Every structure is written in C-alpha cells, then in structure tokens.
Task: structure prediction
Amino acid sequence: MLTENSKKVLERRYLKRDSEGNIIESCDDMFKRVAKTIASADSEFLGKEDIEKTEKDFYDMMVNLEFLPNSPTLMNAGRSLGQLAACFVLPIDDSMEAIFETVKNAALIHKSGGGTGFSFSRIRQKGAAVSSTGGIASGPISFMKVFNTATEAVKQGGTRRGANMGILRVDHPDIKDFITCKENSTELNNFNISVGLTEQFMEAVEHDNTYELIDPSTKKAVGIESAKNVFDMIVQHAWLNGEPGIVFLDRINKENTVPGLGEIESTNPCGEQPLLPYESCNLGSINLYTMLKADKSGFDYDKLGRCVVKAVHFLDNVIDVNTYPNEKIAKNSKATRKIGLGVMGWADSLYAMGIPYNSEEALDLGYEVMKFINEESKKASMSLAEIKGVFPAYDKSIYPAKDIKVRNATTTTIAPTGTLSIIAGVSSGIEPAFAISYIRNVMDNTEMTEVNPVFEAIARERGFFSDELMRDIAKKGTISHMTVIPEDVKEVFVTSHDIDPSWHVRMQAVFQEHVDNAVSKTVNLRNEATLDDVKAVFMQAYAMGCKGVTLYRDGSRDLQVLSVPKQQVKGPSPLASAVIPKPRPRITTGLTEKFKTGCGNLYITVNYDENGEICEIFTNTGRAGGCPSQSEATARLVSIALRSGIDTKEIIDQLKGIRCPSTIRHKDLGILSCPDAIGRMIEKVAKMNGELKEEVKKTIPYLHYGEPSAKTPVKKEEKNSESRPCPECGAMLESDGGCVICRSCGYSKCN
Result:
C-alpha cells in the first residue's frame, strides 16, 4: 500500500533509530508499535482478548492507510519520549512572572515535539503604566519576540521545529502594531499570526462605523478606531505576505462545548483547533479515498462508519497513554478529552468519482460525508462513555442540557494533513490538489515525475498519456490550457489555482457546518490577485459561518529575484526584494577529501557545475562524533552563498583561520577547525578552476541549471521567479492550511 515516496518519508522522519542514527524498525513495525501502545489504554476496562482485537483493528486501519493519527503519535507512541499530542494552547497573563512561566512551558513543549498557541490579548498595551515598578509597559509585540527567540533556541537542538500561533484581539490598543509585526520577513519567523475578530467589529466594518479599543487591564475604552481602516490594514498585509490570518473569536466561543471552564482565546498553530488554556490537540484523519466503493461511484458508508468508530476509540485512547509536558496540561486535556477526527484525500475522491471540486455536486457531497462522520463520531463517543464514563468536565459542558452523555467534549476537526497525506499517497485534508503532476528529486541528483494516480489511469485509458506530457504538466502546474487533454477531463482535474477563491471558501463552509472545532483550509490566490480579492475572501468566510480563514497569494511570502516582473499587480508594492540562489544543477561533479580533526575524521565534498564554478559543499563526519550539525549548517550556508553569486574568495576569507579548541590542541592536523577545513578545500578546488572548466565540459556537456520544480502555475513567457524551495530538498513547497509542506521529502513547517 505504501509508495516509495511514503517509505522514504517514514524512514527519514518516523522510524526508530539506534544511538548511531541507524533505522531499527520497518514501516510495518512502526504501525505495530503504535497499535499496541494505543490499545494498551483499555487494560482497565477490557480483557486480554478484547485488547488484542482492538490492537489488530488499530493496526489494520493504519497499515491499510484508512486512518492515520497526527505525526507525534506515529513518531513517539511506544518510545521513551511518549509525547503524542500535536499542539497545545498556553495562557499568557499580564505579569512578568506569568509571561516567563509560559515561556518555560512553551520551551518544554517544543522540546517534546509539540507546537503552541497563545493569545497575547491580556498583556497591557505599549506605554501603559506599570504600577509595581513605576515604569511603562513594552506591549505584547515585545513579548512575542521573546517567545520567538526561545522557540529558535529550542529548535536548534531538536528534530522537530516548534511552531507557534499568536493571536491578538482586534480591540486591543496595540492591534495596528500586531497587524504589521511581520512586515519584516526576518522577524517572528516561528509564529503564525491571526487577528481575533469580534462580532461587534465585523458589524462595524459592514456599516463603516468606529469601534472602541479596550485596555486589557482596566477593561475600559482607551481609544476609537475606524473598523474599515483596521480591516483594510489586515487585508493589505494578508495580500502582502499571507499574514495575519483571521479568526472569529465570538463565533468560536458561541460553539464552545465547555463554556463553564472559561473562554477560548487561542488556537493551535494551524488554526483548526480552538482550545482552552493547557488543552492539547489529539488529531487524526480518515483517508476518504479508501472509503470509496469499488466502482468509485460514491462512498461506502458502512465501511466509513466502521472506520469512524475505530478512529474515535483510537484517539480517545491516545489521551490516556500520552506523556504530557506537565501535570497541568495532563489534567486539563483529560478533563475535556477533546479529540479531532478529520479527513484527507477529498480532492482525490472527487477525481475518482468524476466530480469537479468547484461544483455544487462537490459541495453537496462534502456536506453529506462530513455530516455522517460527525454524527457517527458522536455515537462512538457515547458508546465509549457507557464503558469508560463521560469526560470529567461534563457538568460544565453543553451536554447535560441536551441529555447526551459523551466521552469527548469535541470529536471532529479538519486539520492539515501535510506529511500524513504524503504517507497515505493522497491529497491533503479537504484542499484541492496543488498539482496533477510534479517533479520529485531522488537521491539529490535524479529527477522523477510523479503523477496523480487517478489522472494517470484516466490518461492511459483515454490514450493521451506520455512522459513528456506529464513533465510538461509538472512545469506548468495546471492542465487547463492544454489542448491535447479532453475538455471533460480538464473540467474534473482542476488544481488549486484553477479554482475561483469563492469555491475554496464555500467548501470550507460546508465542512464547517458539521465540525465541532474548526477547518484548516488555505484559500490560494494567484499572484495577480488584488486587495479587493483578499477582502472578498475574508467577508465571504464571515458571511458563510467559517471560524477563521487563511489565505496565501502565490509568491507573496517568498524572496523575490532581482528583476522587474513583466506584469505589475494591483495593490501596494511588496517590500524590499532579495536575491535567491540559482537552483542546484541537476548533475554535478566534485572532489572529496578527508581531514583529521580533534573530534575525528571530517569528509568534505566540493561540487562544481559545467563551467567549473563551485556550486555546493557537503560534509560528513566519521563515527568519532564531532559537530556534524554545525558542519552541515556551514556547508548549506556556503552552498547557498555560492549559488547566489557571492565571490568565492570572500567565502574563503571568512572561513579560513577560524579556530576550534578540540582541533588546535593537536599540532599535527594542519587545520584549525571544521570551518577552516571547508575554507581550505574550497580554496583548493578554486585554484583548479581554470584546469577544470574544459575538462568538465567534455565529461558532462549536457549539465545545466534546470528550472525549479515548480508546481504553481506561471504566466506564459514568464519563468516562475517566486517559487518557494523546500529548505531540505529544494523542491516546491505547498501552502496547506496554516502549514507548508513538501511532497518530495515530507518536510513541513510544523514537522
């Protein structure tokens, strides 16, 4: 069932390794490990035979790719870390002690592999008096930077980067500073940010009225703003770089299932899971593509219902076997026992059924299937409650009034399934496909075209399949203008940028109607989209009952090539442009040399292109240890600098002469440090440059810098200068909910 790409992603990110980094379990072993651990939560309630059956049920639905839990569960279940929740929400109160207590808790969460969401709305505004010291407050933005720095420090030592959500209420006096806080692309890079919009504010926007800014300490009005002007500012910056997003706080709290525990102020980093303070995300997704009937005429609802029951049981068990970062999180997570069952493979399912994503039929089907999942998940939670009891905070929930006894305060969420969908080999969440075909790098040197299997089957059946066509599709990102493809096929196999933004919002809205929590969905806009287009998306999301919305205008968040685009877009000009490196050559030639260091052997490879120009550096350390991460980081940065046109001599001058105590105490090594060795190796190859050029041309005359592996559509006669390369493999990134993913190697912003 697993594709080769799926296996590579699992090997790279999920499978157990020994102390030397060697993989010590198979993909099948991983599923068995997870199933056994999660089933063990039933030991207090069920006998051995029932537990063994549950374990087999859990294993079967994972190995058959019918259901997958969130990444931390796959990674950590049955292992020493044992932290299975994806994300957490932490409170931030308005005192120095409380703020730095939260910084500490956030760092521990990031260390364990989780993400964090915060509301900074309780922190008093910049310039407000601080009675305890007689000074003035620095405001929420300054403390966001503290959290960002702490995240960066933890990230450097971990294997899974910490991600944050920062939310500020629209009526906070510092709201304008918050809206603009990510204008500089170098700041707050470990945060997604969203403005918390109120019903009062949105009504003021609709009627072009003013609204009050409220001091979070005194709860008194301290200013008045034009709602339209503030909303326009949000729109402008969302157009500029995709941030801030928006969340409708009053709407979220209107549907808070446990209002007796307080008000919801924030969400997880991707925005789909509103949580009370110290609660956690326990998420998983059903692969809808595997729930289709054999003839692909529709969904097999009997099979889907059985999967929902097992998935709810699985996610509820996760809460009990999880090792939480601290006792407060453990207590609050178990008090409400919130789970979030969602879906993936929606776009592929529509392809298989011959239904265009941008059609009323697709909307009706989305409404129907999510209504079914939501209702069946409630029934499953009620069945669990009969055996294991209701959640502890049941009396503070909405359920006693409804005379419903459930095990979980919430059961459904639509999360971004980024890496999980790669493992399952299907489209992500409820997103439309980003591309029908894309180019994947294999072993760094070989490119392979990967085609949507449903499309490939149709193309072969209809007789228009060719490798050349598939590669052409990968470069263009869409089939909408290809005359060789039949019109009825083009109508069905639409991609993200083929679809009018209004259809994105409408699809999100129909799923939201039957989701307890929220829906992670990115509204993808073309680069030429205007401010009015962004405003229309936001207003439509509000009108249709969404709990929030994230959008991304193609190319808006990326570093821009120093050239004048042929077509100017309407709206404000992007901020200062920057240079991005040339793509690495498809094929390179190089030299490798071994250096002895104070920590062991260091192997340095210097590769060059067809012109004899150095284009990349690789390092590898022997078993003796050393500082492999630092050497790799140096090599990566040097490679980027070389492909960005930085003079080789300048790089050599910066590296040569750097000293390391572990090396310089050995007098016979001939180098001063690993960076010094890298500099010397570059210098050595650079001196050979003249001799190399002609020889290289003879051996690899076809070598060239290829076009980026772009999946975003580009305008005719215009290269895609706005691609977002994956930081690990260089392939194209996709916006997926509040996250970004690479379908080539499995990298994601949160994983």
Q: What stands out?
A: The chain has 26 helices and 23 strands. Residues 589-699 form a domain with the Sufe protein. Chain: A fold (CATH 3.90.1010). Residues 402 and 613 are 72 Å apart (CA to CA). Residues 559-577, 691-723 have pLDDT under 50 and may be disordered.
